[in-house]
Each structure stands twice: as structure tokens, then as C-alpha cells.
Design goal:
heterodimer; A: about 425 residues; alpha/beta; D-Maltodextrin-Binding Protein, domain 2; 6-stranded mixed β-sheet; globular; B: about 280 residues; mainly alpha; 14 helices; about 75% helix
Amino acid sequence: MKKKVLALLLSATMVMGVTACGNSSSTSGDTTAETSDTAVTAEAAKTDAAENKGDGNREMITIFRSDDGNGAMEAAIKGFEESQDKYGVNWVVATNDTDQTKSQLNTAFSAGSSEYDLASIDTVWAGDMAAAGYIEPLDSYMKDAGRSVADYNKGSIQAGTYNAKTYALPLYPDFGVLFFRSDIVPEEDSAKLVSGDYTWDELLAMAEKYKGEGGTKTGITFQANQYEGLVCNANEFTSNYTKVKDGLEVMKKFVDSDATPDDILVYQESEACNSYVNGETVFSRNWPYVWGTLATEGSAVAQDQTNVAPLPEGACIGGWLVAMNAKSEHKEGAWAFLDYITAGEGQKLFTSTGGYVPGYTAYVEDADVLAANQLLSKEGFITALNNTIARPASDNYQELSDALQISMHKYLSGKTELDATVTEVEGLLK
Amino acid sequence: MSKNKVFNIVCWIFIIAFLVVSVFPFFWIFISSFKPEAEIFGANCYRIIAENPTLDNYKVVIFEKGMIRAVGNSFAMSAITTIYVVVVASMSAYIISRFKFKGKSILMGLILAVAMFPQMIVIGPIFNMFYKMNILNSYWVCLAYSTITLPSAVWIMVAHFNQVPLALEEAAKIDGCSTWMTLWKIIFPIAAPGVFTTAIMSFISAWNEYLLSCTLNIDEKVQTVPVRLSYLKDQFTVFWSQISAATVVVVIPTLLIVLLFQKRIVAGIANGAVKE
């Protein structure tokens, strides 16, 4: 009996101890059961305080976006709050896990929540969200502000368009480019690549030719795993899904070739990036972020051993857009910040602080932005930027993308025939 | 004799093989947490001790990525959930175990059915409710956690309370105990191992909860450990060495609890195993 009582006492101590220890971060609490209530109130008070930060009278606009850890968002918010005194910005930090962010947003939007006035969305979400009526069409705001769709990056604007209306504006575009070792590839081929005037077959021939030089183990890496990246890569191979048959055939040739790793069918961005950064491959298709990785400690390949070329059939667009919650209670202020960060001074601050490519075309030649992003001075990179292609639009993009991935990955791994796959893919895209 | 020896050796080989397989991931996470990001992949990736060992990952995780606050949040939320679940479950289990009323088995079935609801389905309505009540981003998430653990807690407790001899209770009643006193002074202490199992179980499931936490508590100030871990990645890259460091930081407190209460946990689990 004594033992049992002791056990109970021990359990109580443990639980209480744990409560006390946990709450020390929020309240310097006592250890009674009331602690939970205290913690809740304290926490609620804190949240309220955070929402009303800034100087009292400002109307707070809330934006949901991930933190890239480079101070770009902070710079834009600071700039906005200094440029006027009517609105302030409250930034709720989202994770960098794209799928998680998407499901959080969808849950909030479908509940009719006005919690977020603005949300930074992936290029492929605009269609689904617009179709569901979650996000606000921006055309009338744009007209009043004198903005035209022609001022923004073409591929990004397309991605934010649904039923001929603009629902989201580009924060910054990301697009596929070809990184290659300029210390291995000779001048002549290098010039050809940078001009973009080459074919996928020629690229494969080069990869086979230069494979093994300069300590490399393979010729070219790209993303062929069954995931969203496959839709992007196939988009580039098939010239925006206009040449599905030729494109997939060439893609299969790449997969089967000795110039690609045996496990290319599980490659995603990080595998492709590692293979290039560790000096294992001559060519690598990836997003511009690889350039920054080359400058970090531990990279086997330096930036001056590397050049950038456009892909032969266009660069698939990625990156982020900004959209307005249709249920927002601060639409005027939301638009003010949206316009500031996508086209106003904030776009310049954001892109130059973070080293992004501006989605507002006029800033591509801005001195501060150019200084912050060396890639913008590279000929091959600019050619790629001017030739971006969007992924297929649909009001149920996720379903379409999943079906495309499965169908194409089956073909690439040799489980289905080309003709059947082409018919299936073309049927899906209709 | 020699047959026995062979059997022993075979057993040992099995045990060692099993241990290697199950301990290896933890070991690898531990050594990875001291490696710089560049050594996680590439030519040096199989080294046990990194070429340039570093404590930076721990520094970043603890001071910059707010892992300590997340551990605190996780502790507080798991503890609140545990207390709430134990109190509610023991009272309802006592009623179910000792009183006769109509529809008892239907009630038990209903409780079990609640536990079988996929979280993905209930998350929408729960979010709507929390949003309308304006209690998102708060410790109220414990209420949502308890929906997962409460049903199984009730079931376990009922099994344990059923084991307590009725005679004890009758004796208590004769001595002048009210129903409440019987529950708290007689049944509860005797069924302590069961209570313990329930407490540990709810604590662990609340500690590991991800979906509810990441949907209802988006604000950084109230994020729990599993959600915070998902922030240790970039759009295209996962910072494996930081994740390893964070995992080590997070495992230490749980490990301490388990070591401290090891005997109790085992006793509790074993106690529930046989129904007399």
C-alpha cells in the first residue's frame, strides 16, 4: 500500500515538475493546477501585444510568408512602415515546408478566416485558390494604381492568372537554369550553351563527352524523382508540353545514358545540388539558389569555375507570388503593402537584400539589385529570365500534377511505352 | 550442455544484431550533429568523427532557431494534456467500471470510435471551432490533443479499475467513505500502475503530436518541438546537421524522464497485460 501511494506521489511530482519547468518560459508560475490557466492568459496577452505592435494608431496588415533567413522581408517591412504612417505589417512566419504551408493556408482560407490579409503563395497554388474563391482578383486595384501585367515577369504573371484575371503578383521568380563547369567545357561549346542556341540532344552529347574530366564522375544531373520537380523538368524538356512525344523521348535518353547517375530517377533539387557542389558532375539543371551554395565553405566547386546557361526550350517558372485574402478586413492596406513589395520601393529592397531576381521587370537593371545578385550580370541567366514558361494551369492543379508525375515517371523508369504515355499525358492536359 | 551454449550464442548474436540496427540511427544522428553541413554529404560523409567537428549546429539551434522555447512549449502542453486526460479519464473510467447503467457497451464503443477518426478529417472542423472562438495560437491546443488520447486512456483505466476487488470498496464504504473518497483514496492509488501507463502514454502522444499543433498553433511563440523541427529547412535544402543537433537537444529531456521512471513504466505496461 505504501508503495502504491509513493508511486502516486512520484507521478504527481513528475507531472508537476514538468509543468513548472515548461511554464518557466512563459510565466514564472507556481506549480498548482491553476498554472495552465495562467499560462493561457499570459500567452493570449502576448499574442495581442504582438498584433498591436508599432505605434498605436496604425492599421495592422498580416502577411503569411516563410523566412529565408536573409533579412529581405524585414527590410521590406521596415521600408513600408517608414514610407507611410497609416499601416503597419505583422509578419507570421511560415515554415519552408511548402506542402505544410499550403495545407495551413487552405485550412485557414476554407474556414473563412481573415487572420492573414496577404499570403505568399507558390506559383502553382494560384489556380486552385482562385477557383475556390479564397483569393481576391487584383485587376481593379492594379488599374487604379496604374500597374500593367506587362510590367511583371511574364511566366510569373501567367502563373498568377486564372480565368483571365490576375489573382497574384510575383514577389520573385525562380526558374530552371543549367549550371556548368566553365573550367571543363571549352570556349566554343560554352559560348553555344550561353546563347541558348542548342538542343537537348547536343547537351547530352556534351555531357557524355566531358564526363570524367576534372575529377567528375558523371555528366549531367537534373530532377527526375516522382514529385513536383519532375513536372518542372518535363516542362522544360517538352517545351511547355507542346512537344510531349519528342521531349519525353529525349528525357528517357538522358535517364538511360551513362552520362547521368544510375539513381537519377530519385534525384530532387538537393541531390542535384550536392552532385554539382561536390564536383561530381559537369552539368546540372537546378534553380538559381545553387549559385549561393557555391560560395559557402566546403564547396568543392567555386563560382568562377561555373557558368550559367539557359535551357534550350525555355525555363520553367517557380518562385513565389503574393495574393490577397478575399476575406481580408483590411483590403486597402493589404493592397498598399502588396503593391509596395511587388512593384514599389519594397520590391527593390526585398530583391536587393535577399539577392533575388526581381519580378518587377524594371528593377532587373537597377544598380543595387545587380550588385546583390551576380547572376543578373550573366548573359546566359538573362536569356533564361526572358524566356520563362509556366506549368500547366488548372483549377485542380494538385490532382493534375500528381497524375502527370505518375504517368511520366512510369515511362522514365521503363514500365510503360512512349506512345501510351504521350496519349495519357496529352489527355490529362486537355 | 553444448546445445545450450550454441543456443545462447545464437541468442546473443540476434540481440546484438537487433541492437545495432535499432541504435545505429541514434548514433548516426548524434555524430552528424557535430559535423559541418558540407561533411554530411560528399566524400567525407562516412567518417565517424568529422574532419572539422563543430558545436555551431547546437549554437544555431538553441540560440537562433528557438528550440529551447519549443521544448518549453512542448513540455507545458504535454503536461497540461496529461493532467487533464488523467483526471477526466479516471473519473469516467470509474463510473463505467463501477456503476450499472443502460447503454454502457454502446458508450464504450462510441469512445473507441472517436479514437479511430482520422485526424485529417477532424482537423478542418476543429480549426473552424478554434477560429470562431478566437483561441488559435494558444495553450488551448491541449484540448484538441486530448481528443486523441482521452478515448484510449478511458479504455486502459477501465481495465485497471475492473481489477480492483469490489470488497476493498465495500470495506471503505462501511468505514464511511463517500464515492468520491473511495475513488481518490482507494481505487486511484491501487490502480496507480494503470494511471501511470495512461499518463506516460498521453504525455508521449502529446509530445509527438504534429498535425494539430502545426495547424492550430502557427505563431512562433507557441510552436511545439515537432513543428519547430520542420523550420530547419530551406525551400530546397534540408539542414541535416542542424536537425540532428535539434533532435539530440529534444531527446535529452525525454530520455531523462524515461530513465527516472523506467521501473514504473515497465510495471504499468506489464500490469495492464494480464486480465485477472
